[in-house]
Amino acid sequence: MVQLQNDELFDILVGKISATINRTFLRTFTAEGIDISIEQWTVLACLWNKDKVTQQTLCSLTAKDKPSMTRLIDKLERSNLVTRVSDHNDRRINLIHLTNKGCALEQKSTELVQKIVSKALNNITDEELNISRTVLKKIITNLL
């Protein structure tokens, strides 16, 4: 069994990598005049792939809980990036729909994300990346 030092365990528990990535995205987006968080970008990316989906679908795609997704959609709606529209078949269901402003963010923000991902994975071999994926998936499975 691997024995972690306290500082290593702390880094894992607080999500140092995730926080660093989020800060990098935020800094890059802000510098380019894009006023969204990485969480908001993730929701938009789902909608760029398939527009007019339910909030529950977005929860499943992003692994976010319903209250968190509601807050994200509310903020995106206030920023005029998405809108809620009633489903024609069931008026109780709202579909999340991209606005023109939300659609316009796709190319520039996606290019920035690709640059950040490339930078983050610099000097990491495919083998190392595959091992990392496997290990991280096992950690998640162990904790579920």
Shape summary: globular
Q: Helicity, in percent?
A: 55-70%
Number of helical runs? 8
Radius of gyration: 18 Å
Mean pLDDT comes to: 89
Largest sheet: 3 strands, antiparallel
CATH architecture: Orthogonal Bundle
**Helix-strand makeup class:** mainly alpha
Which CATH class? Mainly Alpha
The end-to-end span amounts to 20 Å
Uncertain parts: none
User: What is the CATH superfamily?
Assistant: Winged helix-like DNA-binding domain superfamily/Winged helix DNA-binding domain
The H/E string reads: HHHEHHEEHHH
DSSP E strands, number: 3
Major beta sheet, strand line-up = 1-3-2
Strand content is 5-15%
CATH topology term: Arc Repressor Mutant, subunit A
Account of the 3D structure:
The chain is globular. Helix content is 67%, strand content 8%. The protein has one domain (6-143): Arc Repressor Mutant, subunit A. The protein has helices spanning 6-14, 16-31, 38-49, 55-62, 66-78, 100-104, 106-120, 126-143; strands spanning 53-54, 82-86, 94-98. With 144 residues, it is mainly alpha-helical. The protein has a three-stranded antiparallel beta sheet with strand order 1-3-2.
